C-alpha cells in the first residue's frame, strides 16, 4: 500500500511523499485556512467598533458601511503559516531565506500602505512610490527575471540582459499588484482568483524538487485566501480592502519568481502569465479604455468598466459573477500548467481540489446566511 501511494504521488509530480513534504504542505495550508477563518470575525467586530469600513457610494455594491480590514486577517494567517513552516522545516527555506524575508518585508510594507489608504486615503503617486520600493526590495535580494530565459524573444548581451530583466521584474511586480487591486470590485472575486492562482502555481512548483519554498509560501497564501473567502462570498461580511489585494498581487508576483519564472527551458514564463491572465487583461482593457477617453491618470479614476462590473451587469448576481470569474481563472491556470508540461494527473487533481474547496466555502457562507436570516426573522417576531 505505501508503495502504491508513493507511485501515485510520483505520477502526480510529488517527488518524495515518504519524506513528509506533502504532509507539511497540507499542515501549512490548514494552518493558514483555520487561523484566517477563525480570526476574521474578531477583526470584523473590532473594525465595526472603530469605524474601519467602506461607506456606500455610486461605485460600491454595499448599501451600508462594510468593514474593510479583511486584508489584515489574511496577512496574519499567511504570516502564521510561514512561521509554522520555518519551525517545522527550516531546511526548506535555508538557501533562500533572504528572498523569503524580502517577500515578507515587501508584503508588510504594502499591506500597511493599503490599510492606511483604505482608512485615510493616499495619493496615487505615493502608493506607486511604495510599490516601486517593494519591487526594488525583491531585486536587490536576488529575485528578478532573466530576460534571456524568456522564450521566443531574441537574446541580448549580458550588459543589456540584467538591466532589462530588472525593468521587466519591476513592471511585473507593480503591474500585478495593481491588477489585483483593480479586480477587487465584486464579493469573492479576488479571494477566489487568488486561491486559484496559488493552487495552480503550487501544483506547478511541486513538480520540481528544488521549489519547496515556493510550494510552502503558496500553500500558506492559498489557505489564507480560502479562509477569507468563507466570509467574503456574497453577501460578504467583510472585504479585504487595498491591504488584501496588494498582498495577493505582490506575493503571487514575487513567489512566481522564486519558483516557475526562474526556469529557462520551454514556456516557463507562460505559467504565471497565463495564471494571472484574468487580472492582467482586465487591467489592460481598463487602462486602454480610460486613456482613449482622455484620462491622463488611468489608475486614479475608478469607474465601472472592469470585467467583473460588466459581468455583474449581464448576470445580475454577484455570486454568479464570482463563480464565472473563478472558472475563467482556473481555465487559464490549466492552460498554463499544460504549457509548463505538468502531468495530466496532477492537473486533474489540482482542478478537483480547487473546485471542491471553492464549493465548500461558498456552501458554508450560503448556509450561514440562511441561519442569519432565520435569526433575524425570529428576533423580529419577538
TrEMBL record:
<keyword id="KW-0812">Transmembrane</keyword>
<keyword id="KW-1133">Transmembrane helix</keyword>
<feature type="transmembrane region" description="Helical">
    <location>
        <begin position="128"/>
        <end position="145"/>
    </location>
</feature>
<keyword id="KW-0460">Magnesium</keyword>
<feature type="transmembrane region" description="Helical">
    <location>
        <begin position="321"/>
        <end position="339"/>
    </location>
</feature>
<feature type="transmembrane region" description="Helical">
    <location>
        <begin position="98"/>
        <end position="116"/>
    </location>
</feature>
<feature type="transmembrane region" description="Helical">
    <location>
        <begin position="243"/>
        <end position="263"/>
    </location>
</feature>
<feature type="transmembrane region" description="Helical">
    <location>
        <begin position="190"/>
        <end position="208"/>
    </location>
</feature>
<feature type="transmembrane region" description="Helical">
    <location>
        <begin position="69"/>
        <end position="92"/>
    </location>
</feature>
<dbReference type="Pfam" id="PF00953">
    <property type="entry name" value="Glycos_transf_4"/>
</dbReference>
<feature type="transmembrane region" description="Helical">
    <location>
        <begin position="345"/>
        <end position="363"/>
    </location>
</feature>
<dbReference type="GO" id="GO:0044038">
    <property type="term" value="P:cell wall macromolecule biosynthetic process"/>
</dbReference>
<dbReference type="GO" id="GO:0046872">
    <property type="term" value="F:metal ion binding"/>
</dbReference>
<feature type="transmembrane region" description="Helical">
    <location>
        <begin position="165"/>
        <end position="183"/>
    </location>
</feature>
<feature type="transmembrane region" description="Helical">
    <location>
        <begin position="20"/>
        <end position="40"/>
    </location>
</feature>
<dbReference type="GO" id="GO:0016780">
    <property type="term" value="F:phosphotransferase activity, for other substituted phosphate groups"/>
</dbReference>
<dbReference type="GO" id="GO:0005886">
    <property type="term" value="C:plasma membrane"/>
</dbReference>
<protein>
    <submittedName>
        <fullName>Undecaprenyl-phosphate alpha-N-acetylglucosaminyl 1-phosphate transferase</fullName>
    </submittedName>
</protein>
<keyword id="KW-0808">Transferase</keyword>
<keyword id="KW-0479">Metal-binding</keyword>
<dbReference type="GO" id="GO:0071555">
    <property type="term" value="P:cell wall organization"/>
</dbReference>
<keyword id="KW-0472">Membrane</keyword>
<dbReference type="GO" id="GO:0009103">
    <property type="term" value="P:lipopolysaccharide biosynthetic process"/>
</dbReference>
<feature type="binding site">
    <location>
        <position position="242"/>
    </location>
    <ligand>
        <name>Mg(2+)</name>
    </ligand>
</feature>
<dbReference type="InterPro" id="IPR000715">
    <property type="entry name" value="Glycosyl_transferase_4"/>
</dbReference>
<keyword id="KW-1003">Cell membrane</keyword>
<feature type="binding site">
    <location>
        <position position="181"/>
    </location>
    <ligand>
        <name>Mg(2+)</name>
    </ligand>
</feature>
<feature type="transmembrane region" description="Helical">
    <location>
        <begin position="214"/>
        <end position="231"/>
    </location>
</feature>
<feature type="transmembrane region" description="Helical">
    <location>
        <begin position="269"/>
        <end position="288"/>
    </location>
</feature>
Amino acid at each position: 500500500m505505501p508503495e502504491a501511494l508513493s507511485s501515485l504521488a510520483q505520477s502526480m509530480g510529488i517527488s518524495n511523499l515518504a519524506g513528509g513534504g506533502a504532509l507539511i504542505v497540507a499542515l501549512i495550508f490548514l494552518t493558514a485556512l483555520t487561523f484566517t477563518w477563525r480570526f476574521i470575525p474578531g477583526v470584523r467586530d473590532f473594525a465595526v467598533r472603530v469605524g474601519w469600513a467602506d461607506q456606500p457610494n455610486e461605485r460600491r455594491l454595499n448599501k451600508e458601511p462594510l468593514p474593510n480590514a479583511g486584508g489584515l486577517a489574511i496577512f496574519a494567517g499567511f504570516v502564521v503559516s510561514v512561521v509554522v513552516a520555518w519551525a517545522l522545516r527550516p531546511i526548506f527555506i535555508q538557501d533562500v531565506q533572504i528572498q523569503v524575508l524580502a517577500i515578507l518585508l515587501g508584503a508588510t510594507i504594502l499591506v500597511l500602505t493599503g490599510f492606511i489608504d483604505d482608512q485615510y486615503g493616499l495619493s496615487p503617486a505615493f502608493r506607486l512610490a511604495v510599490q516601486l520600493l517593494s519591487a526594488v526590495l525583491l531585486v536587490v535580494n536576488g529575485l528578478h527575471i532573466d530576460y534571456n530565459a524568456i522564450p521566443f524573444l531574441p537574446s541580448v548581451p549580458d550588459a543589456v540582459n540584467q538591466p532589462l530583466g530588472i525593468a521587466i521584474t519591476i513592471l511585473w511586480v507593480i503591474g500585478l499588484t495593481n491588477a489585483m487591486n483593480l479586480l477587487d470590485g465584486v464579493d469573492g472575486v479576488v479571494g477566489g482568483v487568488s486561491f486559484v492562482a496559488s493552487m495552480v502555481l503550487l501544483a506547478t512548483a511541486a513538480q520540481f524538487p528544488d521549489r519547496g519554498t515556493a510550494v510552502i509560501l503558496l500553500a500558506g497564501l492559498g489557505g489564507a485566501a480560502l479562509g477569507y473567502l468563507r466570509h467574503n462570498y456574497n453577501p460578504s461580511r467583510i472585504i479585504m480592502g487595498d491591504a488584501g489585494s496588494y498582498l495577493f498581487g505582490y506575493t503571487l508576483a514575487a513567489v512566481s519568481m522564486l519558483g516557475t519564472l526562474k526556469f529557462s527551458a520551454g514556456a516557463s514564463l507562460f505559467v504565471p502569465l497565463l495564471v494571472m491572465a484574468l487580472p492582467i487583461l482586465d487591467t489592460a482593457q481598463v487602462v486602454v479604455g480610460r486613456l482613449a477617453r482622455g484620462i491622463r491618470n488611468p489608475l486614479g479614476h475608478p469607474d465601472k468598466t472592469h470585467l467583473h462590473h460588466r459581468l455583474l451587469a449581464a448576470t445580475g448576481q454577484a455570486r454568479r459573477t464570482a463563480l464565472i470569474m473563478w472558472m475563467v481563472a482556473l481555465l487559464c491556470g490549466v492552460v498554463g500548467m499544460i504549457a509548463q508540461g505538468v502531468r495530466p494527473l496532477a492537473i486533474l487533481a489540482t482542478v478537483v481540489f480547487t473546485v471542491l474547496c471553492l464549493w465548500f466555502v461558498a456552501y458554508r457562507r450560503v448556509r450561514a446566511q440562511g441561519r442569519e436570516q432565520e435569526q433575524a426573522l425570529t428576533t423580529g417576531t419577538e
